[in-house]
Design goal:
The protein is an alpha+beta fold. It has helices at about 5-15, 20-30, 60-75; strands at about 35-40, 40-45, 50-55.
């Protein structure tokens, strides 16, 4: 099992306890680039796909974790 698969398993098993660095690392492994930060919104881009993640106290809400997993599994 590679680094990416381990990180996806971690996100699926505990979506309520995920830090921004975990999400950021996974998105970067998928080829996304952190384009810009506007306030608390971190905006990732890959081609024509734009994904916005609000971050508060270095935590990401579980709904955004689930959306990242869905986005990665679709590709």
């Amino acid at each position: 099992m590679g680094k990416k698969e381990k990180l996806i398993d971690k996100l699926k098993n505990s979506p309520n306890n995920i830090t921004f660095s975990d999400i950021s690392k996974l998105l970067e492994l998928e080829g996304f680039i952190l384009d810009r930060i506007t306030g608390s919104h971190h905006i990732f881009e890959k081609g024509d796909i734009v994904f916005v993640i609000p971050v508060h106290r270095n935590r990401v809400k579980s709904i955004y974790v689930k959306r990242v997993i869905e986005l990665i599994e679709r590709e």
